[in-house]
Amino acid sequence: MKSSAQRSLWVVISLVLAVSTVTAQNGTPQDNKQKNSPLSESENPELIGKRNINKLQINFYSYDKEVAIGRQFSQEVDRSAKMVEDPIIVEYINKVGQNLVLHSDAKVPFTIKVIDADEINAFALPGGFFYVNKGLILAADNEAELAGPMAHEIAHVAARHGVEQASKGQIVNWGSLPLIFLGGWGGFAARSAASLAIPVGFLKFSRGAEYEADMLGAQYLWATGYDPHAMATFFEKLQAQEKKKPGTMSKIFSTHPMVGDRIDKVNTLISRFPERSEYTINTSEFQQVKNRLISMTNTRSLAGRGGATGEADSKRPTLKRRQPGSPPGTDAGAGDAEAEKAPAERPTLRRKSGESSSTKPPDQ
Length: 364
Known about the structure:
7% strand, 15 helices, two-stranded antiparallel ribbon, mainly alpha, 364 residues
């Protein structure tokens, strides 16, 4: 009897342990339900290009009108911002961007340019006029991280969020159209000499629109062959940098940060994607372009310092060294040569406030 009771107890304990192990490994039943639920049409990356993601959208603009609007504002951007013209950099960013566009739901052609600005930012105007700051390229650690925010911005264009907001605005107030598209630059963001005059409504979207861009962007990364988790990890990294050093991200980029529930939702969606045997994380081209940008930035910095230093050097007095023990005033041209052979015997020249120079013997 006792043995039978013990066996029953062990059976119960074994079942509890088994259930606990399965739950620990596979998550809560709710998590499992989400992961195992079938992907909807708008969530399935295998349906990209075969679906209409805008069928329930309020939109009064044809694609031709959308492109015309985007072109108008892109001309303003081109006048206001300095572009990177290095053909290797421009060609590479276009290669990454156009490959994402090819694996997206976008129905307009894309024009992609690189802005010579350190601010971490990327934005796409209606009609496919897409701009990537060099600061974003430098902030990414690999190509997948660079592709993440690019895919997110391409998704805004594919989902036609800019003209959708304009259409909703017209329903509320038809008189707002000129302020949105044609003039009234007071509604535009102008932050510095390198800042751009762009309607805020084209770049600041509702939380629902931002999540849709997250969802679509992750699909575009998957379809292109990139690790879709890179988008969330890159935004998490940017948020950490922003906390340490406020102002790292552009105001537009940080307005709707991809944190908290948005990251959780995207990661849950990604876990339901069809499995891939491998993803592209990085390429040698990315490192080449990043090194090229770093070199370009360093060259400018050195050139700027060099110009100032050269001007200051021309005003400095010439300092002549003399041999230790030789009488003051002795010109030591030969001594210089010997000093080269015995650097340990050289005096250390340190400039003091109010004096041209002073001589101090080397530390013993």
